[in-house]
UniProtKB/TrEMBL annotation:
Entry keyword annotation includes Repeat: yes
Keywords in alphabetical order: Repeat, WD repeat
Lineage: superkingdom: Eukaryota
Gene3D superfamilies per UniProt: 3.30.1330.30
UniProt-recorded Gene Ontology molecular function terms: protein phosphatase regulator activity
Protein name (Swiss-Prot/TrEMBL): PPP2R2D
Cellular component per GO, a single term: protein phosphatase type 2A complex
Species name: Ecytonucleospora hepatopenaei
Length: 410
């Protein structure tokens, strides 16, 4: 699957826009497979802790500052007797509660199953109350590279420093591939989505789901598209949105009707240049709620910003690179990229080992190279998974997690 699709012709008329280097540090996932993507998803956990959902069904929990890690087996390869097909163990989606308790609740999904677990560090309650884990903590800005590259007889990430217990485990809850799970602000409800449906769960039980959205009705009208991502609004407890390969973001409210009610829709339109060639691909792979009124979307080569109060007017459209016709005959057309934000600044990856940074406050755009990844157009150089927590940016490439402390906003 990996390889070079095109070369300089693919990035036709590529613009060199303020390309600088983020000084990233990294750690490797301890799995041996050089042919597949190692990371299924990543999520910020607590302070400088990161959750990595791996393709082998393992959840890796790492505290990058305290040199602690834990590997927790979540899923094994399974077989669906009803559909007569294998269920891969790869963790495709996860979300965790936003509280800062001694135990964190994490929801995880593979292709068809959802599991809820509780994770905590191996320490006593007294140690937790005294915050002993912070006594010897060194600022991430002062952490030296040799901490993670030091040649010793034992790997500093070998020892498990976390323990977990399974709370709920529900199988074959979706017929198609689960691509998203999301908790609302109060942690009361959980939504899960596959390619065609979105279901609602009570997060404290997971006994039975309630279907909110089924796009099969729209497919009967001749349209062919799927749901790419679903998430709750971080600023409204009852509003959730989903994006599609048709270039739409649809917002629904679960308090208006029992099966939720559609409140607004945003459209990302394909555009062409003067030679009638496509300049923007409309399939939306991810989106984020910037505040109560603004939404940012990510397609393969574009970031768009919309205002909920004026759905027909796009506030900003930022091209990440120009494309030519060769992209439509390559596997690159199917690549999906996550987008994250902090204080109005958007961060998203590329297929050339770069992070695109878009400041929505000043409407400024630039790119940052990630040291350690080749700056060539290859799928294996892609940075598709990205998240931010407490001023630290995390991104994944193959079996490496890169992280850096973001500069304060000026």
């Amino acid at each position: 699957m990996f390889g070079i699709f095109g070369n300089s012709s693919f990035l036709k008329n590529k613009k060199e826009i303020n390309t600088n280097i983020f000084k990233f540090k990294s750690f490797e996932l301890n799995i041996k497979n050089s042919f597949k993507e190692k990371v299924g998803c990543i999520a910020s956990f607590r302070d400088e802790e990161i959750l990595v959902g791996r393709e082998d069904g393992i959840l890796q929990v790492t505290n990058i500052n305290a040199n602690k890690t834990g590997n927790i087996e979540i899923f094994k390869k399974d077989f669906d007797l009803l559909d007569n097909e294998n269920i891969k163990e790869c963790i495709t989606a996860m979300d965790c509660t936003s509280d800062n308790s001694i135990e964190k609740t994490v929801f995880l999904a593979n292709e068809k199953n959802i599991k809820c677990i509780k994770i905590k560090e191996r320490m006593s309650v007294i140690e937790w109350m005294q915050h002993s884990k912070y006594k010897n903590r060194v600022s991430l800005q002062n952490t030296t590279q040799k901490v993670f590259n030091q040649q010793t007889n034992t790997n500093i990430f070998d020892k498990t420093e976390y323990e977990s217990k399974t709370i709920f485990n529900v199988g074959c809850v979706h017929k198609y591939l689960i691509n998203s799970i999301s908790l609302n602000v109060s942690n009361e409800f959980l939504i899960s989505s596959d390619l065609l449906k979105i279901n609602l769960w009570k997060s404290d039980r997971l006994e039975q789901s309630f279907n909110l959205v089924d796009i099969k009705e729209k497919l009967d009208c001749g349209s062919i598209f799927v749901i790419n991502c679903t998430k709750f609004n971080a600023y409204n407890d009852t509003v959730f949105g989903y994006c599609t390969s048709q270039g739409q973001v649809v917002l629904n409210d679960i308090k208006i009707e029992p099966k939720s009610s559609e409140i607004c829709t945003f459209d990302v339109q394909e555009s062409r240049n003067s030679d009638n060639e496509f300049r923007m691909i409309k399939s939306i792979s991810d989106f984020v709620f910037l505040d109560e009124y603004k939404i940012a979307t990510r397609t393969l080569n574009n970031i768009s910003i919309f205002d909920i109060r004026h759905t027909k007017n796009k506030l900003k459209n930022q091209e990440l690179f120009d494309v030519d016709s060769s992209i439509f005959s390559s596997d690159m057309i199917y690549e999906k990229f996550k987008i994250s934000h902090q204080n109005g600044i958007l961060y998203t990856g590329t297929l050339t080992g770069e992070i695109c940074v878009f400041n929505t406050n000043k409407m400024e755009f630039n790119k940052r190279k990630v040291n350690g990844i080749e700056n060539e157009l290859q799928i294996e150089n892609g940075i598709k998974h990205i998240c931010i927590k407490e001023g630290t940016l995390y991104c994944a490439n193959k079996d490496n997690i890169f992280y850096t402390r973001l500069p304060p906003n000026k």
